[in-house]
Write a structure and sequence with these properties.
It is a multi-pass membrane protein. By secondary structure, this protein is of the alpha+beta class. It folds into 3 domains: about 300 residues, ABC transporter type 1, transmembrane domain (ABC transporter transmembrane region fold, Up-down Bundle), CATH 1.20.1560; about 80 residues, 3-Layer(aba) Sandwich (Rossmann fold), CATH 3.40.50.300; about 110 residues, Rossmann fold, CATH 3.40.50. It has 18 helices and 6 strands.
């Protein structure tokens, strides 16, 4: 937000100008109408007439300009923060984020990053502009009648400080609860949608849906309490300014009876406090939003404090893409685990050499792959890339030499061409090269039957293709990457035996000069 302080300051000045124009419009109109009733010479009213027009036009123009500037600043803050949150997720790495619920990550990336935008537009802006306009109004009324200025200052203090304080006190317990429940609703919604087929087949859909309904009902109850707090503050604001208007009117009438104040000025004293209702109207809502902002900020700071799966060195030596990896007595442990998932592993990957890690499910094969891909750090032993300890090298540089296909290849909701080109985004990823990769992955016949060819959409998360086709598309993407080291985690999963054997032979042939 510091980068947007110039825009924020300009937005505050514009907002104060718009609100001040509204108050001045009411005060000037009150004086003009009451003075005109006395039928003075028209020339004595010309300044007020021009002022009414100027304030009327200025209010709309300044409000429009303020909306442009303030929302521009808020959107820039949100955009910058989303990039920062995404960078934090990348820093933490998939080994850590994979253990967080997807709905929780979605809430932090979307809802929690919206909170600072609310801070700019709905908290800081109304609060600072209200202070400027309120102070100017107190000074202006005080010049007319000092006693009325003191009463107005007291009324604004109750409406601008007391009412928001009451609203904030009532909503204080709901802020953190709202953020937690919102994240829970997002988590349950994502899980319900992703697991819809399994839930329907096993007859558990209604149970999960009722659980989501119950969570959403709790969230609604918390939000209703927050809305009640805002309403309580707004009611106190109206009561305070209404009482201020009555008191200022009484003081004005008393001063007029003593010939201390002209008649039109009494109308100004009576109506100006009512015009200030617009100035302080947004403050109770701002006070209610502040706890939610603090809760969202705490959640983002918690993400920032999360230890990553791999910590890169501050400075790493200049090195090319690695062509060989070697593990010496390698131990690997998942974050937060009490024991190593891989212990005392020795292997060496050289050009043209094939290594197969076999064993029962849960023995640590995928953990070893995660260490090779530098998404998990060794807890003991050594992992060398071209003879250099990986702890001294940049992880992105190491991964630049590795093509990988896991047991579940993610496909984006886009075309076949876009999903394949992900592995080779350069200009040389032409259609012929993409089609050749499909043929090498034993997808030639399947591709030939697609009317739209490479422009065929694969659907949400690849829903338009089978599990075996998804797996082979992942392999085609890995082959297309054409990197020195090829790492495959269960590459023939979801395939029938003849296809799996043919694909394995194809992989061995096309990667004869590479590490695998």
């Amino acid at each position: 937000m510091r980068a947007q302080r110039g825009r924020a300051a300009l937005a505050v000045l514009l907002a104060a100008g718009a609100l001040g124009s509204g108050v001045a419009l009411t005060a000037t109109s009150a004086w003009l109408i009451s003075a005109a009733a006395l039928q003075p010479p028209v020339l004595t009213l010309m300044v007020a007439i021009v002022a009414v027009r100027a304030f009327g036009l200025g209010k709309g123009v300044l409000r429009y300009a303020e909306r442009l500037v303030s929302h521009d600043a808020a959107l820039r803050v949100g955009s910058t923060l989303r990039v920062r949150v995404w960078s934090e997720l990348v820093r933490i790495g998939p080994a850590v984020t994979g253990r967080l619920r997807r709905g929780d990550l979605l809430t932090r990336l979307v809802s929690d990053t919206d909170a600072p935008q609310d801070l700019v537009v709905r908290v800081l802006l109304p609060a600072l502009s209200a202070i400027l306009v309120g102070a100017a109004a107190v000074v202006g009324i005080g010049l007319l009648l000092p006693a009325a200025g003191l009463v107005l200052a007291l009324g604004l203090a109750v409406a601008g400080l007391g009412a928001p304080a009451v609203a904030a006190w009532a909503a204080r317990r709901t802020g953190r609860r709202t953020a937690a429940l919102r994240a829970e609703v997002a988590c349950r919604t994502v899980e319900l949608l992703d697991a819809a087929a399994d839930l329907l087949v096993h007859g558990a859909a209604d149970r999960y849906r009722h659980a989501l309904d119950a969570t959403d009902a709790r969230l609604g109850a918390v939000r209703r309490r927050a809305a009640s707090a805002t309403g309580l503050g707004t009611g106190l604001t109206v009561l305070a300014l209404g009482g201020t208007s009555v008191a200022c009117t009484a003081l004005g009438l008393a001063a007029h009876a003593q010939s201390l104040l002209a008649g039109p000025a009494v109308a100004v004293l009576a109506l100006t406090p009512l015009a200030l209702a617009e100035v302080v109207a947004a403050l109770p809502d701002a006070a209610v939003r502040l706890p939610a902002f603090l809760a969202a900020t705490a959640r983002l700071q918690e993400l920032e404090r999360t230890e990553p799966g791999v910590i890169d060195p501050v400075e790493s030596p200049a090195a090319g893409v690695p062509t060989a990896l070697e593990a010496r007595s390698l131990d690997v442990r998942w974050p937060g685990a009490g024991a190593d998932a891989v212990h005392d592993l020795d292997l060496r990957l050289d050009a043209g050499r094939r290594i197969a890690l076999t064993g029962p499910s849960g023995c640590g094969k995928s953990t070893a792959v995660a260490a090779l891909l530098r998404t998990l750090a060794p807890s003991g032993g050594e992992l060398l890339a071209d003879g250099a300890d990986v702890r001294t090298l940049d992880s992105d540089r190491i991964r630049a030499g590795i093509a990988w296909c896991g047991p579940f290849s993610h496909l984006f909701d886009s075309t076949l061409r876009a999903n394949l080109a992900l592995a080779d985004p350069g200009e040389h990823a032409d259609d012929d090269r993409l089609v050749d990769a499909l043929r090498r992955a034993r997808l030639g016949e399947w591709f030939a039957g697609l009317p739209a060819g490479l422009d065929t959409p694969v659907g949400r998360h690849g829903g338009a293709v089978s599990g075996g086709e998804r797996q082979r598309l992942g392999i085609a993407r890995a082959l297309l990457a054409d990197r020195p080291i090829l790492v495959l985690d269960e590459p023939t999963a979801h395939l029938d035996d003849p296809t799996a054997e043919a694909l394995a032979r194809e992989i061995l042939e096309v990667t004869a000069d590479r590490t695998r």
